[in-house]
């Protein structure tokens, strides 16, 4: 819970367990045994959960090491099941991604391909051609906006369709290199791919690494051409190095010639004029729009090598033209610049006109451009790490102060309920300082943690929860009133055991959530993880209170009030373990500061959901990125010019 690795968690747990009897002793010395007991219960409960979590993570790491060294038949069978599960998730996600790429432009013309030896290759045969390559490595090239991402997505779906026909297959997984820095740590490039699997498909990192080590995953790497030249060279070097993919099978999608060296290539060609003309004739149902496009269609057919035909045979520019000039009343666009720049200048206004926000509300195009340019300051949009207008240090300090205030207030309430002594404000202030310090030290986006326990139908997390609950009940029984008999003892143990099961399910059992399917889901997932950590001390203290209530003269009243007691007494520790180490306080502060300058919408996650539905951005893993780098560059240029 506290530690970044299993050893840290175990040591944190041991430290908390040692603190429990010390808290009881301190309460006796201060003549306030109630406060000492409450602190001891909280420390002991969290210590048990931390030790159990650390032991479980340590056992998973040991199993991971064994999995790399030894692929037994049983482990191979389990890997096959996991690969099939991943394959189904990839097919579902890539189908949705392709639909979003094509958007409302259904039946969008598909580009033709040309092999490195000059032979033509239909897009529908690309998967078969790749499958015939002995080395299993392919580079897909093409001009900017030529449809390389669409070709890569089609390749993933076609390869996935071929997988069930084979006893041993690879799951094609498309990744955007814009989220890869080129710096490798730990497991290198494979670790980055495993984190993508965890973000996009909720595959635990350990399981993803096991699938990668044993060749169950085929990386399809897109977006190399959208990186800065120096970074692109570093990424290409890492991919082929010892810490990268080496001689592994892969598909690389980029704009330039083969950066891997002596690898078969396939080039994505511009669309044919007749493809464009035929699609435009069938595209627009409105008679006025068809009449407006009629001279364009006639012109490109009459001069298939002219400037207009060159513009429209690019899938990106054809998409822009159909979006901007496909409305009955097209928005105005600038008359200067290249044809592509003129189309880009009218894109946002056209999208806003065609896609109202939630509730039918029309957004203001000027504000949408400003918000998009703010979000586009980096190639990928990491919502949790947004710092658009204020320095990161200022955001960190303000977030830490907010967390400290929340911890202080909740501690005051808990202290007044337990003892009401004069030392409560000072104790609460000390705990608040601890909360602020934890947020300063750890309140940044943390690595993905997806537990395999939450993805099992069996009883691993049930057993862990029962053990934690029984341990808590034993501690409570040693401090509370003596049970009246075996029935009372059994009831207390079962109550605390149920609380332990519930608390452990909150941490592990909720790991079975779906992957990220829209930008706002990233925030909801982080918030869900933080709330689950917040709930652990609340549930454990509530179950302990219920356990004590069974020995009271009116146990029913105590049992009914135990959830309230758990919330009020567990809130300080809930804030400490849930929100103090969370990146969300910094996100809320950064967004609040940006909203004051109208640089961001009130709810950036929901706005990005709208932008995704409107075809302006797409989702890769847990990050959003613009549909094309040209769109982002145009918005940044317009923002810099003050237009």
Write the layout of secondary structure elements.
Elements: H1 6-29, H2 33-69, H3 73-102, E1 113-115, E2 120-121, H4 126-132, E3 137-142, H5 148-162, E4 171-176, H6 188-201, H7 205-213, E5 217-222, H8 229-240, E6 250-253, E7 265-268, H9 273-283, H10 287-302, H11 307-312, H12 315-324, H13 339-345, H14 347-354, H15 365-375, E8 380-381, H16 392-418, H17 424-442, H18 460-479, H19 486-507, H20 520-549, H21 555-579, H22 584-596, H23 604-613, E9 617-620, E10 623-626, H24 629-641
Parallel strand pairs: 3-6, 3-7, 4-5, 5-6
Antiparallel strand pairs: 1-2, 1-7, 8-10, 9-10
Helix pairs in contact: 1-2, 2-7, 2-18, 2-20, 3-5, 4-5, 6-7, 9-10, 15-24, 16-17, 16-21, 16-22, 17-21, 18-19, 18-20, 19-20, 20-21, 20-23
Question: In total, how many beta strands?
Answer: 10
Task: Report mean pLDDT, rounded to a whole number.
Answer: 76
Arrangement of strands in the largest sheet: 2-1-7-3-6-5-4
Rg, rounded, reads: 29 Å
What proportion of the residues is helical, as a percent range? 55-70%
Major β-sheet profile: 7 strands, mixed
| CA-based shape | globular
Summarize the structure.
62% of the residues lie in helices and 6% in strands. By secondary structure, the chain is an alpha/beta fold. It is globular, with a radius of gyration of 29 Å.
Describe this structure in words.
The protein contains 24 helices and ten strands. It is an alpha/beta fold and 643 residues long. A seven-stranded mixed sheet has the order 2-1-7-3-6-5-4. The longest helix has 37 residues. It is globular and about 95 Å long.
């Amino acid at each position: 819970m506290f530690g970044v690795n299993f050893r840290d968690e175990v040591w944190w747990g041991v430290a908390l367990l040692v603190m429990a009897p010390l808290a009881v002793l301190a309460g006796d010395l201060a003549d306030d045994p109630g406060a000492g007991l409450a602190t001891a219960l909280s420390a002991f409960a969290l210590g048990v959960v931390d030790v159990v979590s650390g032991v479980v993570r340590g056992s998973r790491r040991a199993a991971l090491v064994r999995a790399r060294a030894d692929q037994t038949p049983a482990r191979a069978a389990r890997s096959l099941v996991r690969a099939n599960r991943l394959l189904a998730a990839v097919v579902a996600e890539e189908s949705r991604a392709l639909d979003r790429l094509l958007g409302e432009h259904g039946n969008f013309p598909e580009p033709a391909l040309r092999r490195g030896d000059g032979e033509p290759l239909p897009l529908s045969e690309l998967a078969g051609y790749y499958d015939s390559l002995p080395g299993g490595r392919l580079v897909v090239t093409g001009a900017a906006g030529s449809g390389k991402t669409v070709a890569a997505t089609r390749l993933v779906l076609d390869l996935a369709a071929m997988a069930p026909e084979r006893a041993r297959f690879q799951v094609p997984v498309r990744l955007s290199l814009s989220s890869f820095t080129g710096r490798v740590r730990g497991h290198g490039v494979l670790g980055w791919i495993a984190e993508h699997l965890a973000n996009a498909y909720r595959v635990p990192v350990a399981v993803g690494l096991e699938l990668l080590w044993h060749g169950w995953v085929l990386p399809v790497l897109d977006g190399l051409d959208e990186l800065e030249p120096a970074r692109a060279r570093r990424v290409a070097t890492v991919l082929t190095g010892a810490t990268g993919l080496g001689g592994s099978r892969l598909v690389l999608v980029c704009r330039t010639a083969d950066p891997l060296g002596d690898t078969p290539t396939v080039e994505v060609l511009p669309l044919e004029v007749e493809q464009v003309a035929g699609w435009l004739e069938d595209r627009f149902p409105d008679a006025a729009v068809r009449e407006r496009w009629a001279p364009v269609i006639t012109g490109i057919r009459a001069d298939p090598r002219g400037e207009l035909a060159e513009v429209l045979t690019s899938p990106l520019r054809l998409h822009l033209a159909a979006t901007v000039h496909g409305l009955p009343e097209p928005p105005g666009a600038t008359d200067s610049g290249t044809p592509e720049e003129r189309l880009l200048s009218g894109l946002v206004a056209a999208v806003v006109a065609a896609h109202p926000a939630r509730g039918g509300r029309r957004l203001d195009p000027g504000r949408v451009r400003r918000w998009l340019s703010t979000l586009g300051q980096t190639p990928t949009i990491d919502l949790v790490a947004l710092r658009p207008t204020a320095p990161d240090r200022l955001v960190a300090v303000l977030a830490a102060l907010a967390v400290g205030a929340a911890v202080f207030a909740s501690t005051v309430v808990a202290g007044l309920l337990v003892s009401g002594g004069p030392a409560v404000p000072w104790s609460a202030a000390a705990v608040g300082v601890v909360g602020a310090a934890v947020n300063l030290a750890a309140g940044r986006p943390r690595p993905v943690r997806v537990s395999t326990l939450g993805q099992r139908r069996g009883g691993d997390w049930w057993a862990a929860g029962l053990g934690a609950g029984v341990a808590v009940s034993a501690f409570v029984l040693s401090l509370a009133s003596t049970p009246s008999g075996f029935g009372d003892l059994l009831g207390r143990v079962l109550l605390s055991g149920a609380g332990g099961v519930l608390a452990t399910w909150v941490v592990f059992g909720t790991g079975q959530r779906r992957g990220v399917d829209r930008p706002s889901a990233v925030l909801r997932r982080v918030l869900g993880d933080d709330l689950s950590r917040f709930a652990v001390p609340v549930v454990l203290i509530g179950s302990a209170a219920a356990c004590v209530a069974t020995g009271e003269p009116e146990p029913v009243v105590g049992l009914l009030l135990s959830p309230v007691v758990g919330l009020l007494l567990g809130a300080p520790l809930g804030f400490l373990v849930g929100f103090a180490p969370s990146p969300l306080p910094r996100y809320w502060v950064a967004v609040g500061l940006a909203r004051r300058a109208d640089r961001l919408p009130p709810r950036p996650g929901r706005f990005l959901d709208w932008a995704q539905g409107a075809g302006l951005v797409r989702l890769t893993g847990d990050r959003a990125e613009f549909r094309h780098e040209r769109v982002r560059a145009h918005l940044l240029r317009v923002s810099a010019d003050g237009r």
